[in-house]
Amino acid sequence: MAADPAAESDADGLRVALLIADAARRRELVAALPALGHSVASLETSDVVLTDDATMVEPGLAVVLLGEGAAAAGILPPDADLAQIDAALRAVAVGLVVRPAPRFFDADDGVPLPLLTPREVEILVALRDGLSNKAIARRLAISQHTVKFHAESIFRKLGVTNRVEAVAKGLRRGLVHL
């Protein structure tokens, strides 16, 4: 006897609480969730919460945030499409963390920025942590001269002049996270 496809979709679907302030976007999501195999649920009975304001959600819940913030397990751009939302809901529901992909273009002029090497990303993370060149060298088991060389390369590639600007741009582009 063949399995009922509707029953399979219900078994795979999630109960999603929607906390969306924009009425038009909320209507769109209410209509789209069943097509994705999910159902709209109350906050108390939900598997995952989809919101555009993470402050509306109690800590400890599986949350996908449409917007910016660090309080949610899943963060998507506000204009995320339904496929991205579906993937993020499913990932967060099983305990994964979802973050937007790094942007490889400068937001100011659309010019592609050179990619950082893995070592440069390690240095950028250490800069984010506020470490001195000496402390970075110790952490990564390299010389202070090598740290300085990589830091200058990061500054040049990101088009910045100091550590603070490099970290800020790295955070904006998704190269490092808080």
| Mean pLDDT figure | 83
Instruction: Please provide the ordered H/E string of secondary-structure elements.
Output: HEHEEEEHHHHH
Give the radius of gyration. 21 Å
Percent of residues in helices comes to 40-55%
Number of strands: 5
Class derived from helix and strand content? alpha/beta
In one word, what is the shape?
A: elongated
Largest beta sheet: what is the strand line-up?
A: 2-1-3-4-5
Could you tell me the CATH topology label of the largest domain.
Rossmann fold
Task: Characterise the protein shown here.
- This protein is α/β, with parallel strands linked by helices and 178 residues long.
- It has two domains: 5-93, 3-Layer(aba) Sandwich (Rossmann fold); 118-172, Winged helix-like DNA-binding domain superfamily/Winged helix DNA-binding domain (Arc Repressor Mutant, subunit A, Orthogonal Bundle), CATH 1.10.10.10.
- Helix content is 43%, strand content 10%.
- The chain is built from seven helices and five strands.
- Helix 2 (23-35) links the parallel strand 1 (15-19) and strand 2 (39-40).
Helices and strands, with pairings:
Blueprint: H1 5-12, E1 15-19, H2 23-35, E2 39-40, E3 48-51, E4 63-66, E5 74-76, H3 82-93, H4 118-128, H5 133-140, H6 144-158, H7 163-172
Parallel strand pairs: 1-2, 1-3, 3-4, 4-5
Helix pairs in contact: 4-6, 4-7, 5-6, 6-7
Concise overview:
The protein is of the alpha/beta class. 43% of the residues lie in helices and 10% in strands.
